[in-house]
Amino acid sequence: MISEVWNTLSKISFSPFDLLPQPEMREKIAALVLKGIPEGLEGEAAAALKTLRAELNESTGKDLKVVVFGGGTGLSNIIGGDSRRQGWEELPFEGLKRVFPQTKAVVCVTDNGGSTGQLLKDVDTVALGDIRHVLLSSIQASRLHQLYGLSRREVQHVANNLGLIFNCRFKGPLEDDHPVWALLDSKVGELPAKLRDFLQKLIAFIRIDPRMSRTLHRDHCFGNLLLAATILSYDNPGAEQGPNAFTAAIKGLSRVMGVGERGVLPCTTTPSQLLVRYANGVEIPGEHKLDTARRGIPIATVRIEYCDTIHTAPEIFQDILEADLIIFAPGSLYSSIIPVLQTPGIADAVRQNRRALKMLISNIWVQQGETDLASEDPERRFYVSDMLDAYEVNIPGGTAGLFHEVLCVSLRDIPASILQCYAIEGKMPIYLDRSALITRGFVPVECDIYSQDLLRDRGVIQHDAFRLAQVIRGLYYGRGSFEEATPCPLQKSGKIVKRLHLEPGKTVLPRLRYDRICRRIQEMNIQTSSSPVWHEEELKRELIDIFWDHPVIPVSHLEFFKDIQLIDRSIWGRDQKWDNVFSYFDPEDRCIKILAEELTSYRRLELALMVALGESLLGDYAVKKEIRDVVVDGLQLGHVFHLELRREEERTSWFSDRELETFFSLARMSRVKGEPGHYYRLLNMEEGFTPPGLLMGLTYAWYVDNRLATNIEYKMSVLQINSSSLIPNQLKMAERRRKTVDFFREVVFLKKPGE
């Protein structure tokens, strides 16, 4: 018996890798690169593993071509560290660029918040903030040395000064005596002559070019102005024009900054915006809304609207096809990787390159407004597989052929106390569901690619750019040990239904939209019946900000009212019975009327304005509105609300007869037989009733931002309940509210041509 077992054992051949505890070959390589061999391991196996580790860590990546996709923070962090974070100035040349100097970044450009959003009001360009982040993180010591003959200490000083200049923030207006100019002059003056001259010309351009003058009155990050000036200065008579000017400008700036001519490029040079559709059917444009909105419901899909013909630099496709490594950086799920891969041609180019090692770097933490709710079940945690589901649904063709390995931070060695501190702040990790990834044909690689120094010194968990680069290099040079056994499949599990690629929509340039808003607000009168809470010009600025902050609102909606009147409580004299509470639209004089006390806060003004604006779309739709008692045998049983429409050709309204009929049906009103334009609703004695005008206004406000109309949000919460758990009456109610959302998305907020 013993001899038989001995014979069986003698036939088993062991590899030194079998002595490493990790379950998968890629994870063994990652652990070997980062940690070395386990304690206590000796002999030939230990010697072989030590030799292999030395070979992997000493292998040069200087000849490898790397393409990385992503947004601002996540992408910049892995390429060379986020230049805005404390400590970057001490190690500005770490990360992927140190190990792989031929790294090229393709950057998402749909951001519309912060300084970038302010710049879009004045300059026709893509979002520049993320490009700024990635440019700074991509500065290479070797390139600065070659360009300017600098020492190691000098190249670090140049990188630090560029970080200070490009990240310098100021409060506008930036006039000639603003102290920021002296700071910039000082830091620019310390740069090498060629770089100094380049930036000084840009600064002079910023101060004198009329296209830049308006934006200098706003709060900004100076690096965004430098990028805008670079682009505008290239787009002049005798120079490159249009999209080519943009690409040439970024290349020129990258070259003098020591980034490399094609080190950083936008995924498209066409201005665009992100459209987010939630699981309840609401669709809202604007990436910054993902950060500010708390809709409490998962995101279903995202898509991009472009302002013109979509243009992507041809060099990007060439770089993708020639890449040895293709990496998808961590970052905002719906506003970094997905918009890049929705850019026509990019995902297909990635699939065509079948020889590159392709990997996705998973996020560590859920992100408020994006990954804090799972699509299938809002109550459960967010998993790595949920990220893959989002890619599968939103990327044309799904994830097939895009990446195979998924690199995840190992949380097993992180103290529970650290995770608890994050939980107190509302941050939860994205959990790795290993079996779900394997089932779908992906390979999870769980490894210690977080910064152990930050964890030790500050209790912070984030990707470590250099450790990540070491793992990627190890996987590339060690791929012969696993690649043949598990070739990258072009088809994944059929569990997720892929949607067809939608043709990109068209939207107006943000600057043109902003100009239209400004012109409309400036031409209206602000009337008040008492001492004004705000001065007229101050109030108009607030109104402009409100409308700009909600790009879902077509500017043409502002044409359905004439002026705004602020009315004192003592002469208000209105109630909910006639379509108003604290604001309303008066069809008699076509004015929005707001209770003056609502101006005590921005949020109250915003709600009052949205409700009345929604009502104004109905216009002078009604000839007659009245409530009649229902009396039978002397007993009052209820009321009937009657509404008679003005003839379509005689009214001013956003809606046609058919659209109004649809809306009244959703408001549970019926049409009187034989009397076109006559609608009614029967009410019980104690039944509450929201008249159609007020319902239009409140639902309008809710659609724009659900925090503005909590009573409507409460009613719409039925859409978050699984339909199988609803009783028949609730199902009917939920269906009506789904149709209401569809009506507002497809009719109310449908942009007219030129919007």
Count of domains: 3
Poorly predicted runs are: 485-503
The percentage of residues in β strands lies in: 5-15%
List how many beta strands DSSP finds. Answer: 21
Structural class: alpha/beta
Number of helices: 30
Q: Supply Rg.
A: 30 Å
Give the helix proportion (percent range).
40-55%
Strand order of the largest sheet: 5-2-1-9-10-11-12
Biggest sheet overview = 7 strands, parallel
Dominant shape: globular
Output mean pLDDT.
87
Entry keywords:
single chain, 3 domains, 7-stranded parallel beta sheet, 4-stranded mixed beta sheet, alpha/beta, 755 residues, 42% helix, 30 helices
Topology:
Blueprint: H1 2-10, H2 25-35, H3 43-58, E1 66-70, H4 73-80, H5 96-99, E2 103-107, H6 114-120, H7 129-137, H8 141-148, H9 152-166, E3 169-170, H10 179-189, H11 193-208, H12 210-213, E4 220-221, H13 222-234, H14 242-256, E5 264-266, E6 272-278, E7 283-285, H15 288-292, E8 299-306, H16 314-322, E9 325-328, H17 333-342, H18 346-352, E10 357-361, H19 384-394, E11 405-409, H20 416-424, H21 434-439, E12 443-447, H22 452-458, H23 465-477, E13 505-506, H24 510-523, E14 526-528, H25 536-549, E15 564-567, E16 583-586, E17 591-595, H26 602-616, E18 622-632, E19 635-645, H27 657-666, E20 670-671, E21 678-684, H28 692-704, H29 710-716, H30 728-748
